[in-house]
Amino acid sequence: MKPVWIIAKNTYREIIRDRIIYALFVFAIIMVGAALALGQLSFSEQARISANFGMAAIHISAIIIAIFVGSSLVSKEIDKKTILSILTRPLSRLQFLLGKSLGLILIILTVIVGLSFIQAFVFWGLKVPITPAFFVSIYGILLESLVLLGIALMFSTFSSSFLVVSFTIGIFLIGHWVENLNFLAKKSSSELFSIFAKLSVYGFPNLEKFNWRDVVLYNDDLRLDEIVMSTLYGLGWWILFLFLTMMFFRKKDFA
Amino acid sequence: MNLVEVHNLTKSFKRHFWSETKKVIDELSFDIPSGVITGFLGANGAGKTTTMKCVLGLIFPDSGDITYFGKKSLTTEIKKKIGFLPEQPYFYSYLTGVEFLKFYGEISTKLTRRDLLLRIDYLLKKVDLYHAKDKALRQYSKGMLQKIGFAQALIHEPELLILDEPLSGLDPDGRHYLNELIKETAKEGRSVFFSSHLLHDTEKLCENLVILKDGRLFYQGPTRNILDNLNAKYRISFLRGHQQETIFVNNQDEIQSHLKDLLSQDCIIEEVEQDRITLEEYFVKNVLEKKNEAGLDHS
After folding, report:
1. Model ipTM?
2. Average pLDDT along chain A
3. Which of A53, A97, A132, A149 could bond A35 through an S-S bridge, CB–CB 3.0 to 4.6 Å?
């Protein structure tokens, strides 16, 4: 596992030095600032608006990194030909992919933890209690990012960055509409639409399974079995995408 | 003993899904012997880089097999015995010289942190980059990148060093420096296999050659053999009175008889030298000219 960790450390360092993270922090701070400003309009709703904007900022930041950085994670190594000297080293292609993924997961974790601290500080300032639901919703964002990273990584082994981003955003949108599509399929009289919707339900990850942000907003109850099942669901998709990535990557020629 | 043995290697490429398949390497067989510098020559598009990438596991051949240190597959243990410098110095530009070597060293060796740092210091001094060790690679010149690339290829003390066009794009000073590094590396007991377009340097450096032509083996063997075989002529320079004269003879027997005659005529023998052609002349005549005759452009 040593090579995986070394590749992960280097990937982490590369992204940090790319300064994309700083731009995201600035974006998130603007979102939190906007939330506080809007919250002034209504004292009773200030906490809800702040929570709404804050969680959205964390969610968007993590998704942006997973999709945009994930899409270039391997393709950049191929385009810049740095992969030539790396893959001739004593490590397998799977270790390389795992290392790259782990590095980006650590970046997403850094951003999520950093922004969560800012959000927790805002809650503390607004005297909103920080409940376990807050941490669970952050965990949900991490799981969703993991799945999207898996998708971006898979596409990046055989497609250009632009197409990878397009495909992954497409799956991100479908993933959040899967439940609606399923509902509409049941109500629809069109057989074609019904087939398409059913294919979407089984063929795409349902990203709403990781959406626990409303729990923070409305103080709903969260069931442990739901969290466990969603975790297994997310890891299952991630492993599937990693397996497919490896299938494409295993015999890829680096001409 | 051969470190690498390539048997009947064939590789074809398709530019697009719908385009025709082009055979780049065709039933290629050659060996990389131990303990010598082997030059890998061929015109542009002859398949040198593709062959090297097949040997390094970066490209999968359609057929044929490669034996490494007597083993049939390129395992991580085998990879520890091989160092590689790619054609262009493509490295992580955000890393400093030390960080770069540390990264490659950590992946490739089991050295302790202290020993690895000592090895890095040693290599940086060896390639004359110690002064730039804390500079980011994006600030390095082409020559400096080639040198740091050479250092990364040596970081894990490999038995075999594979260098793809290590001398291209360097100024004469940089070429000379890298030539010396390659020679030193060979003196340390490592085997070197390198491709180059610079035939003058290759001729000086390599005891052994592998020459490709249209993806097939054209020649494998000692450098001297191909040059000597073509050079039957010897040149005798001498002074007859104050007049300098030269005669050409074809073999050792003729040299002996001419020398006797000249000495009996009170001539002063200045020099007897084999009138060799250079590797470049050989290459142009035998590898390039025949392709050009066939109307192929290899500019």
Report:
1. 0.81
2. 86
3. A53
